[in-house]
Amino acid sequence: MSEHLHTALSLAADGLPVLPLRKGKVPFGNCPACAKNACGGRPNMKTPGPCACPHPCHGWAAATADPGVIVSSTWVRAWCEAAAVAYHPGGAGLTVVDLDNPAAIAWARATLPATRTVPTTRGEHWLYRGATQSANVVRPGVDIKSTMAYARWLGPGTGTMTALPDVVGALTVKEPSTVRPAAVTVPALAGSGACPHRTPTYLDRGIAMAEQRITAASTAVHTTVYRTFLAVLSTHGRCGCLTDAHIARLFTAAQAKGESPRHCTDAWTNALTRLGL
After folding, report:
1. DSSP assigned state of 62
2. Dihedral through CA 72, CA 77, CA 78, CA 80, nearest 10?
3. Which domains are assigned to the chain?
4. What separation, in Å, do the N-terminal and C-terminal C-alpha atoms of the chain show?
């Protein structure tokens, strides 16, 4: 029995719905029968849909506390390849406040009631009893992971778990802030610098298609966002016709899929560098 499978069974026995993670802390992709939503389910959405697939499909919705499923042949293969174990906090009636840096930890210590804490690579997970809506970047360095989300299992932590405070729930439902992507200066074409697309309709259609590509991604969201940014810049990045409004549309689509503003900015910068812009 692999170490990850042993951990998963132990957590499931305590009522935590678990799932295996691949390298990069992402769930295993949907099986061929469920690829591109062919099964009729709704991968990574509110419910897993009618799919009865035995594979660890559909992201967070695959999480289960059923030992019979966890030790089934398809899941055992996944556990053997897994890089980590994750769990669905909301499915166990829990909320994880993911604090990504020292400043976020300092804010939590000054604002939130003490509870069980788990050290992470860059910060801490604070665990509370009670489920709430999940949301990324509710403030700098702070994500809320509960319903429709998963958190990596990093150990039981220390301290007594307390009830979910109202302030955490309030963070997830406040009005979203306006997306303000980092300023990007795109070199103009040599010569006249006239836009070769002749009409803004061509650009608007390209941005709309890029938004749809990001929105439709059910797995490998990081990679899809980067490749989409790269495609947009390769077509429109040298004529100077991209505006902050166009970039904001792409960033908004990416953040709706769970990407943080930092990840968006990094992906955009990496695409610029790749193209020599």
Report:
1. G
2. 120
3. 3-85 (no CATH), 90-173 (3.30.2250.10), 200-274 (no CATH)
4. 50
Q: Mind listing the pLDDT tens digit for each residue in 10-54?
A: 999 999 999 999 988 889 888 888 877 777 665 444 554 556 788
Structure tokens at 94: 């829990």
Backbone angles phi, psi at 70, to 5 degrees: -60, -35
Structure tokens at 22: 């691949």
More confident call, 182 vs 259: 259
* 27 closest CA partner among 15, 46, 42, 44: 44
Among 22, 32, 33, which residue's Cα sits nearest to residue 86? Answer: 22
Round to whole Å and give the CA distance between 200 and 17: 49
Could you give the CA distance from residue 186 to residue 237 in angstroms, rounded to a whole number?
A: 6
What residues contact residue 103 under an 8 Å CB cut-off, 6+ apart?
140, 141
